[in-house]
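Cross-check.
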Amino acid sequence: MSDIYLTKVERKTIFTQGLIYVLFTFVIADLTVTGPEFFNYIPWLYLMGILGVNKFYRPVMTVIITTVTTFISSLFKFNGLSMDCIYLTIIVGVTTLFGIIVGLCVKEFVLEHRLVKHIKIQKKILYIVTIAILTILSFGIYVFRFGNIFSYIAARGKTQDYVKNKFNTTDYNVIDYEHIPWSIDDYVYKIETDSVELDLKVEKEVELLNYEQVQQQLNKKLQEKVEVYAKDLAIHLEAKYEFKNITIEPQGVFFTVRSSAINNEQMESLSEKLAFLVQFNDERNTSISRIVLNIDGIVQVIAKEDFNKITAEYLIAGMEMEIIE
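Predicted model, tokenized:
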């Protein structure tokens, strides 16, 4: 209908609806790039394309607004032109275009239903197939690039199980997470539990990406606990976990004890301190596997099976053997 047949109120209403639509389109296009991860679990711009055909009446302008806004937002997010910037712009432009095509199909479908009693079966099938295919493609593109609520819930559950099994706790804080682009159910999580930050890659299995950093953090916490445990011993002590390969599950704890040359009486005191130290267990009952004793450069390694032998005589004999060798 031509604008000359519209009243002032109708024109004002259409203008207001169009203005609101344009503002919403700007905001949604920007949030598609800069918004929270879960925002893109639904292809909002596809829905805005459908709405634009029936409310804004400017389908070409809708595509231009969404693609330009997305492109500019991507330049800021990715610090300049990059493949991610181009991919996002293409995705937004394509899904908006799909929405517009579906909107046109819906509009024609409704209009022809009003004008004629029956739509030709061929045209009806064409409209239905087009709507179904473009809807599936739009949601599929978004799932492939941004993830979906179902894979997010599954990844969150795997993360919780990993922390529970590896750290014996369900108390953790999700600092950040991100869907891995061009995958269906793969995510990267950054979480904090008991002052330890974990970078987790969640696929079929959970992989710890920063295991070296986590090992260092665990060793730091261990040292603090051991210093509290041995605060009354007045002894120079270093504690570290023994890890196997890239795991963060300790195989045991080893102590490095340093001392100066001492007489028999002081050796007796040292043996008592060592006997107390070997009783240490951390919160997961990880016990001492060995003690490295360094007395003025003379190093003696005491294995776990020899802990019950620790006496002044045993330490002196070990030192004498090291000197002879």
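The chain has nine helices and eight strands. The beta strands are 173-179, 187-193, 196-202, 206-208, 236-242, 252-259, 288-295, 298-303. Passed to J.P. for a second look.
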